[in-house]
Amino acid sequence: MRIFKSWRYPASWKFFRLDDRLLLMLMAVIVGLCSGLAALALNRSLIAMFNWLHKYHHIWWAFVLPGIGAALSSLFLEKVVVEGAGHGVPEVIYSVSRYGGLLRFRSSYSRLISSCLTIGSGGSAGPEAPVVMSGAAIGSNIAKYFSLNDRQRVTLVGCGAAGAISSIFNAPIAGMVFSIEVILGEWKSVNIVPIAIAAVAGTEISRILQGNQIVFSHLQFNIDLLDIFACLGLAILTAVASIVLTRMLRSMYGISHKISAPIWVRAAVGGCAVGIIGLFLPVVLGEGYHAVQAMIGGTFSQGLALVAIATLAKVVATALTLGWGGSGGIFAPCLVIGSLAGLTYHHCLILLWPSISWVNEGCFALLGMAGLISGMLQAPLTGIFLIVEITGGYEVILPLIIVSAISTSLCHYIEPASFYLKELVERGHLLRPGTDARVLSDLNVREIIEEDCITVKQNMLLRDFINIIKISPRNYFPVEDEKTNNFLGIIHLDDIRAYLFNPDMYDAVVLGQIMDTKVDVVHPDDDLSEVLRKMDAHQLFSMPVVSNNKFLGLISKATILDQYRKELVVQTSQ
Fold it and tell me: Which of 109, 427, 537, 562 has the highest CB neighbour count under 10 A?
């Protein structure tokens, strides 16, 4: 990890330090411009690489090109920059939820290079997740350079992601919404304004260098009420496609990791398999934006069978690319698969009801893109605004909302966590701001141990114990071994009340006979969420904290909840 020396701001900057929001706005412009340039660099590199390799794609041995690109990509990540393969976005979300947005400097360029090798050679992936990783790392390291605090750094990470997405799609609103909805997961005014500024900055640098152009132009659509009702079926189809793609990606990942071969070999195998599919269906190769443009423009001339096969082939090719070790994102594949699914659905409508004058096929391709993005990310606002901005299709806003909302809801019902978040949720790594897990993650057992407990020995008579009860404010008494001082159990007054009111037992009973030895204990490094779960499951109000068989103190639910409330106030007031 690159370490920056602490930067001392000039005296003239003290004004910005006094106004936190003004400082973040200024930093947002810088982050937005830098992340926008990073996105443009990847975009131009992909175009150059595609033009260079295009002449070879029609040769029979061209199927090895995606394999070579994926292998070089994985070798670069594993051996040169020493970063694990992945989509990039989950890593950014994890850094935000657990480490205050801390990202390594090399992440600002590593995924750009690796994804360029994968996608440029024909791998079925998109450049969006790599540029999000790059932009977020740029924001994180700029915050580190200017010695900003955790909350400010998280905001600049969001600014970097928004600037990158806005630049690559020429879509500032979509970039802002994606960053807030997916990366940060919270809508707070202190974040929204800087992220919006960064999104505009990223968009403007893109427009200055390559013009203000809509990514995918289309014909004007005239949508009737019947077309809107037909969108219900399309929403179901895109939800199914989202679930299939999600599970196919995870399945391929699992299969590839069962093979005892270096990751670059697995990546090469997956890439070559994509290349073989691409020999018969070139639409699966690369990011596929040219095919999307043809579909929403109404010039994609393939029939129903071929379009349906191409949809499935693109799903498989994406799973082979990313699941077997290639580098890239799922945005572009979702756009292609969504377009193909929409086109398939339109062809089916014409086949079933040929007498009805349906809207142009490009409209259903456009709606299919929104459905796939919304379903995969479970972020309907991102799907809606992204498709509206990159196509200029404001006249389809109503069916867009319908398809996005239904697709998201169905996917959430079947897969409660989105593609980006599923692995984080399964590992317990997703800690959104203001949630129980996030608040408790900032507390630890050692901070809230109560050490005012009086310990007793196992051979102590009950009479002597009664004298200790008289001076103790607690109802719990840990019992230790007389020789080793190891923790043996615990005595609670409610459990021995019958003995206390029977004087005949005072000299006949020792504590080792009446203590509870089947006690759930807590270790200093235990997660407080798990501790609370145990307390609720066994109806406990206190638990002993033990380390190396030695009693350290008690931890009580009351203390945990009191500290939880204080920490929640701190986090939500930022």
Answer: 109
